[in-house]
Amino acid sequence: MFLTWLDSNSWLLEIGGKRILIDPWLVGSLIFSNLDWLFKGSRSQNRPIPDNIDLLLLSQGLEDHTHPPTLKLLDHSIKVIASPNAAKVVQQLGYTQVTVLAHGETFTLNNQVEIKAFPGSPIGPTLVENSYLLKELESGLTVYYEPHGYHSPKVKQAAPVDVVITPFVDLTLPLVGPFIKGGNSALEVVRWLKPQVILPTAAGGDVVFEGLITKFLESKGSAEEFRSLLEKNNLSTQVLEPKPGDRFELRLEKRALAI
Q1: Which of 226, 166, 169 is nearest to 199 (CA)?
Q2: How many other CB atoms are there within 10 angstroms of residue 172's CB atom?
């Protein structure tokens, strides 16, 4: 299996001989509802659009997961697996092969990769987006992805999982509370799933954020602090910190890691 972190929540996962692009923001700025004065994310240069994508996997309908400028550039005939909210965005953009996965539903890609949707991040009072468990059917290798650190107890049924991708850092707004949960939330999911490897998402990389809302954001945690937290709790999961754009291989055999 190969992984490439593309900044923010964006990943290219090569598993089961398939190339799966997850929550891509690769070009242009990240702006919510055209309110650039409120929040704007930018990077020094665009990320190259990966070629030969077999599947687009979208966990949420918000712009940092379903980024319209990026989606407009991708081939609209690519197969898409999406939460109900994200599916509306790509359907409006003209994507032609969109499968909606509700919580508990499963999709199999060419009899090689199985994708199951679990409850993920709450967006507002009534909407809960998706997290995903991906399984390479030939080897049994599993990857769990939840980009905001909201882990449903229902995911316990998938244990043990080989690789977890989730935040290590807490991002909080006063009076609103955490909208990205790392730290203790990541520790909890490690206890549940006992992964060999955990990788951070949603923070760091080559992205610069500006706007009114950033003045009130409170950030807490780091990969090093999370390593210490795992050690204090006698958990052997390995923390990896990929650099944006670097493709690396994970070879996981019999619950032992070699890179």
Answers
A1: 166
A2: 16
